[in-house]
Each structure stands twice: as structure tokens, then as C-alpha cells.
Amino acid sequence: MTLKYPDAKLAKTLPAASEGSVYDLCFDKEVGRWKNWLKLDSADTAPINPKTSFLDIMVTTIDTVRYACLFDLLVDHGKHVLFAGPTGTGKTVYIQAALDKKDKSKVRSIMSTFSAQTNANAVQDIIDSKLDKRRKGVFGPPVGFERAVVFVDDLNMPSLEEYGAQPPIELVRCVLGLSQILPTVSSPCVTIYRALLVTLTSTVVY
Ligand SMILES: Nc1ncnc2c1ncn2[C@@H]1O[C@H](COP(=O)(O)OP(=O)(O)OP(=O)(O)O)[C@@H](O)[C@H]1O
Ligand SMILES: [Mg+2]
User: How many domains is the chain partitioned into structurally?
Assistant: First the structure.
């Protein structure tokens, strides 16, 4: 089979199998070649400053670069993000570091962590208190900001209610699917505008 343009052009740039699996490589549009994630310009491979406090050290690995890059792409294009992975693998530190690098004059980040005690009212409170009311029934980032990023860590934590559901997660699902928070007895239906949800959840490994 003969490849036609642009496939033929791409085929020449395909990496050798010795360069690793497809997950180790990223297509660098600037130079039109596949590159290891750690060789991208965005990978901070400079030696760690000896004066940095031990707790603040973040070692650049293929995962830190890869997930930060995917996170940036999704947030820049206005997509909600869900990162799932085994506990203790660095999800919180990677995404917090990537969020810290965002332009703070354009992106308003709102941090929140779910716990076993988090209930549906807590999710409603995040929307009411951290987002600005733009007009009647519509909440969004404060004036002057392009976007709000609501970071919800440990999404899986809320405990099950009597019937086995997790109401805070149901509300998050409403925001993801409908961009709306469904009304509670005391509040009307609210539409969410220009706000992204970045959620992290642990997966259980059996
Ligand atoms: N690349 C890294 N450089 C430095 N420390 C790291 C790195 N990756 C993970 N760690 C450390 O591993 C520990 C666990 O990371 P973290 O709390 O982010 O995991 P997690 O995936 O969010 O876990 P959980 O699902 O339980 O919330 C932290 O102390 C973090 O500092
Ligand atoms: Mg975490």
C-alpha cells in the first residue's frame, strides 16, 4: 500500500520502536516530529535548587509533563477535566502545580476538597460563595476573568447516603452535563457560565 500525503509525510517522522511506546511520545507540531515528553520545551529538567525546602520539591517525570500538558490543553479549550488514578501517585501535586502556572489575571482558580462529610449543600455553597452572580440565575467567574477553574480534589470521598447514592457527586455531574445546579428547596436552578470543573478521584486497585 502506498501512503498519500499527508500520511506519507507523517510516516517518515514515526519514531523507532526503541524510542519507547506511544505513551512515551508526543507529536511536536513546531518541528513536525515525535519527541519524548521529557524533551519538550515545557519540561522543566533544570537541576533542583539545593535551597528549596524538601516539601516543595517536585521531581520532573514523564507523568508530571504529560499530565500538565493534557491539563493545559483541556482547560485552554474550555473542557471539564477528570483525573482518576491510584491513591498516592501525585495527582494532587501535579494538577496543583499546573494550575499555579496559569495566568492569574485571566483564570480564577477555586480550590475545594471533598471529604466523607461533604454533603450536597457544600457543593451549592462553593457555587454561591466562590462564583460571581453575573445576572439572574447565572453564575460565572468574577468580572475581568476569562474563566473560573473549580478544582475539586478527592471527588470519590463523600459517603453514601441511605439509598447508596452520593448527592455531592450527583450535583457535580449536573454541572458537567448540563452546566446547571439543580434547585434545592431553598434555592432556584442556577446556570454555570465560563466555569470549568477539574476533578481528581482515586481509583481502588484490587
Ligand atoms: N513528581 C513528584 N515529585 C515530588 N513528589 C511527588 C511526586 N509525585 C508524587 N509525589 C509525592 O507523593 C505524595 C502523594 O502525592 P499526592 O498526594 O498528590 O497523591 P494523590 O494521587 O493525590 O493521592 P490521593 O488519591 O490519595 O489523594 C505527595 O507527598 C507528593 O509530594
Ligand atoms: Mg490527592
Answer: 1
Does 45 map to a domain?
A: no
Examine residue 123 and state whether it is found in any structural domain, yes or no. yes
- List, chain by chain if needed, residues with CB within 6 Å of any ligand 1 atom: 57-59, 61, 64, 85, 87-93, 154, 202
Ligand 2 center–CA 39 separation, angstroms: 27
Residue type, 29: K
Burial class (CB in 10 A: 0-12, 13-18, 19+), 153: buried
State the ligand closest to the CA atom of 201: 1
Nearest CA to ligand 1 atom 7: 90
d(C-alpha 78, C-alpha 28), whole Å: 22
For residue 74, what pLDDT band results from cuts at 50, 70 and 90? very high
- Tell me, in angstroms, the distance from the centre of ligand 2 to residue 53's CA: 20
* Contacts of 87 by beta carbon, 8 Å cutoff, 6+ apart: 202
Quick one: pLDDT band at residue 199, thresholds 50, 70, 90? confident
Residues contacting 16, CB < 8 A, separation 6+: none
Provide the domain limits for residue 184: 77-203
Q: Determine the pLDDT at residue 149.
A: 92
What are the pLDDT digits (tens) for 61-73? 999 999 999 999 9
Cα(92) to ligand 1 centroid in Å equals 6
The protein residue whose alpha carbon is closest to atom 24 in ligand 1 is: 87
Tell me which residue of 68, 113, 117 sits closest to 94, measured CA to CA: 68
- The residue length of the chain stands at 206
